[in-house]
Amino acid sequence: KAGVTQTPRYLIKTRGQQVTLSCSPISGHRSVSWYQQTPGQGLQFLFEYFSETQRNKGNFPGRFSGRQFSNSRSEMNVSTLELGDSALYLCASSRGDREGETQYFGPGTRLLVL
Amino acid sequence: SQQGEEDPQALSIQEGENATMNCSYKTSINNLQWYRQNSGRGLVHLILIRSNEREKHSGRLRVTLDTSKKSSSLLITASRAADTASYFCATDGGGADGLTFGKGTHLIIQP
To answer: Are A55 and A34 in contact (CB under 8 A)?
Structure first.
């Protein structure tokens, strides 16, 4: 079974631009979660999508948004990029059961904002 | 915000020795999970322990959970060079916050 894939793997943008990251979950998984990892803040939860609906949301500004398609693939968008948005963005997929299920992570997209 | 706090922040041991990492958290949980990350890559799930479990084994891994102390430990026995990585604990409170990660323990296995 193929794992979680993320594209692109690396991205360089400048301040003020916007960026879209993509995540394809494991086949059969309906939940996709996004996390941001920085040296200073560590791993932080952005949001979770399940059946094309945002089910949970972390404490990030509205510049961070996402969506999920009918095939469970998900995209994350960051508008008006800031230097502090430089990070490794990880997505994770799971079946979508609510009780104690394992999340499987992709390799991440490393975003550098100049 | 971080809920879990791993201890130590860094650990260097000789190949073949055992490595123990600890994790403390603040609120009630449904389960606690341990992940490994190599050099800023994706996270690899190691083991999940539910709040009603006290100990779990998987190969060379042993995880304990003490909900009264809000703490967990990860033991890696007979360490290998390939175990060099950062290890994170993550708590699942069953709420709207997704997994809440600690800042990790960086483990270095010296050959």
So the answer is: no
pLDDT tens column, A11-36: 999 999 999 999 999 999 999 999 99
Judge contact between B71 and B7, C-beta under 8 A: no
**Contact indicator for A95, B32 with CB cutoff of 8 Å:** no
Give the residue from B28, B65, B97 with the most A CB atoms within 10 Å of its CB, the best one to mutate.
Answer: B97
- The DSSP string of chain A is ----EEE-SEEEE-TT--EEEEEEPPTT--EEEEEEEETTTEEEEEEEEETTEEEEE-S--TTEEEEE-TTS-EEEEE-S--GGG-EEEEEEEE---SSS---EE---EEEEE-
DSSP H or E run through B18? none
Contact residues, chain B, for A56 at CB < 8 Å:
96-98
CB proximity A60 to B under 8 Å: no
Query: Shortest CA distance to A27 belongs to which of A105, A94, A107, A106?
Result: A94
pLDDT tens per residue across span A34-61: 999 999 899 999 999 999 999 889 999 9
Whole-number Å distance between alpha carbons of B55 and B32: 12
